[in-house]
Amino acid sequence: MDLLHELLTGAPARIDAIVDLESLSALESELLGKKSLIASTRRGLGQLPPDERPKVGAQVHEAQRRLEDLLAARRELLERMAEDRLLAGDRVDVTLEGYEPSVGRHHLLTQTVDEVVDIFAGLGYRVASGPEVELAWYNFDALNTPPTHPARLESDTLYVEYGEEPDEMLLRTHTSPMQARYMEQHEPPVYVVVPGRTFRADALDATHSPVFYQIEGLAVDEHITFGDLKGTLAHFAREFFGPDRTIRLLPNFFPFTEPSAEMHVSCFACDGSGCRVCSGSGWIELMGCGMVDPNVLEAVGYDPQHISGFAFGMGAERIAMVRHGINHIRHFYENDVRVLRQFT
Ligand code: DAH
Description:
Layout: H1 2-16, H2 21-32, H3 37-44, H4 53-90, H5 108-121, E1 126-127, E2 133-135, H6 136-139, E3 159-160, E4 169-171, H7 177-185, E5 190-199, E6 211-221, H8 226-241, E7 247-254, E8 257-266, E9 283-292, H9 294-299, E10 308-315, H10 316-324, H11 337-340
Parallel strand pairs: 1-5
Antiparallel strand pairs: 2-4, 3-4, 5-6, 6-10, 7-8, 8-9, 9-10
C-alpha cells in the first residue's frame, strides 16, 4: 500500500513530463501493464485475508482509475498539439501570389509561314507539302535546270547517297520541286502554296543557314498572265506589310520561269525615301517569281498551248527578318526564349 501511495504521488509529475505519444505509451505500460505494481498487487489480492481483500481491492481499483485519467488527459493534450503542428505546417497562405506557368507559343517562323499561307488561302490557294529528301529529277530536271547548271554542284547542293548515280537524290534546295510534283498529281487549274524546309551547302552567316524555310506559290490555269502575277504579289505585299505598300518587278533569271523576275516591296520603314532597313534604296527584295516555263508545263504533261501560269518562291526567314528588323538568321534556330518571346 505504501508503494502504491508512492506511485500515485509521483505519477502526475512523470506523466506531465512526457512530450510525445510514443513515450506516453511506454509509460502507460509501465504503470498499468502486466508487470506493473497495479497488476502484481491485483494478482496478490487472493493471498490476503478475505476481510482485507475488498478494501485493498478498492484502493487498487481507485489507483488504476486515477492513473488512467491522468494518462488519458495527457494523451489528449499531446494529440491536440501534434495536430496543431501538422496544421501549421500544412497551412496554405492564399494571399501569396501564384507562379505563372510559362505557356508555349508558336515559333516566329511558324507564325510567319502560317500568316503567308493564310493570305493565299484567302485567295483560294490550297496548301501542299512535299518530301525534304528529293529526287534530282524534281529538284532540277523537271524544273528545266540543265545538267550543267552550277546549282547542281556539291558546293551548293547536299546529295544523299542512294541509288545508282551519285547525284540522284538530294536534300531539296528549294520548294520549287513541288511545282512539278503537284502538277503531276493534279489537273489544272492549280492554285497552291507550299511551305517547307530546304537545304543548301551554305555556311551560317547573317543571312544564310544550311537549313531554312521557303514558301512556294504556283498558279496555273487558262489565260494566266504576268499581270495576274503582279496583282497577286501586290496583294500579298499589302496584306503582309501594310496597305500602303507597292511592289516592283525587276528582270532576273530562273531556269523554271520565263520571263523571270525578282519582286521588291517599297520600304515599310521609310515609305520608299531610303533608310537603313532598305539600305537607302527605298525597296526591299522579297522573292523570285516569273511565268512558268513551257518546258516545266510539258515535263508534267500539261499543254503550254492552252495553259499558262506563274510561280513565286520566298524565304520565310528573310521576310520575317525584314518585317521585324531581325539582323541574324541564327535567331530563328538558337531558340533563345528571350528572343522568341518578343514575337507573340
Ligand atoms: N526556287 C527559287 C530559289 O530558291 C525561288 C523561286 C524563283 C521560286 C522563281 C519560284 C520562282 O517559284 O518562280 O531561289
